[in-house]
Amino acid sequence: MSLVLDPTAQDLLFREAHTANTFTDEPVTDEQIQAIYDLVKFGPTAFNQTPLRITLVRSAEARERLVQHMSDGNKAKTSTAPLVAILSADNEFHEELPTLFPAFPQAKDLFFAQRAAREGAAGMNAALQAAYFIVGIRAAGLAAGPMTGLDFEGVRKEFLDDDHTPLMVINIGKPGPDASYPRSPRLAYDQVVTTV
What we know:
Largest sheet: 4 strands, antiparallel
Oligomer: single chain
């Protein structure tokens, strides 16, 4: 059985897409990011939670503040990417649940009254949304350079608050020269899928 999605789109989103380490200087616009979000906001999460929060780092001053919290291997590419996004999980996401999941508004208090439960749910569901965001960046014809090599607590203190947990930083733009490494191997179907 073949996939319904056109092979060209499959290539754009998965087979030909690579993590980018260099970028051209072509700007990434607010309109592009809005279009990406307007697409990926429909990705499924538990109880329709939307804990992902995206902080766009555009100013030179903010970029400088962010770069000091990146691992050495990530500083140069974060300095030069056209746009950088800090992705975080909002641990107070449950306040929106009565609106976002009207079929079961009591979920807010029944399942998420305790902070520890919220943090676990926010981290997992925001990670799902982060993956959708990366695929959305690719759908816009851009490249993503997601990174977890950073001082998470430093980024939280510099850009967020105690209710937000940083997940990753993503450089965004058109890929530049020698932007990616050769494709690394993937596990085969029978190494991943088991039928019981």
